[in-house]
Amino acid sequence: MKAIETNALIPDDRVLTLQLPQDVQPGEHHIFVIIDELPLQKSTPIAKPKQTKAEIHAAIMAYATQHAGTDMDMEL
After folding, report:
1. What is the spatial distance between Cα 76 and Cα 21, in angstroms, rounded to a whole number?
2. Are 9 and 47 in contact (CB under 8 A)?
3. Span 19-56, pLDDT tens digits
4. Among 20, 34, 57, 74, which residue is least crowded by beta carbons within 10 Å?
5. Start-to-end Cα distance in the chain
6. Inter-CA distances, 62 with 10, 35, 37, Å
7. What does the alpha-carbon distance between residue 8 and residue 17 come to, in Å, rounded to a whole number?
8. 19 and 57 in contact (C-beta within 8 Å)?
9. Among residues 13, 5, 75, 20, which one has the least CA distance to residue 53?
């Protein structure tokens, strides 16, 4: 099991798209999503809305690579 934690800006259409790291195998997976009932307060920093998909993907890949084989890379 892999865990990725981040903040996301939810648009009015409530569509959230995510690109997974290359080491996630294609096929049916169980995915668990947790959403706070209320948005973060303005004083809480969130990802810059103007970040490109490539920048977000690079950040996720860097995080996944850094934590591969650690306690963050949990086995079921």
Report:
1. 19
2. yes
3. 888 888 999 999 888 888 888 887 656 555 666 777 77
4. 34
5. 6
6. 23, 23, 29
7. 10
8. yes
9. 20
Taking the C-alpha atoms of residue 51 and residue 68, their distance in angstroms, rounded to an integer, is 25
Cβ-based neighbours of 39, under 8 Å, separated by 6 or more:
10
SS3 track for 31-76? CCCCCCCCCCCCCCCCCCCCCCHHHHHHHHHHHHHHHCCCCCECCC
d(CA 63, CA 71): 13
Question: Could you tell me which residues come within 8 angstroms of residue 57 by beta carbon, excluding any fewer than 6 positions away?
Answer: 19
pTM over 0.70: no
> pLDDT at position 65, please?
77
**Tokens 């997974």, residue?**
20
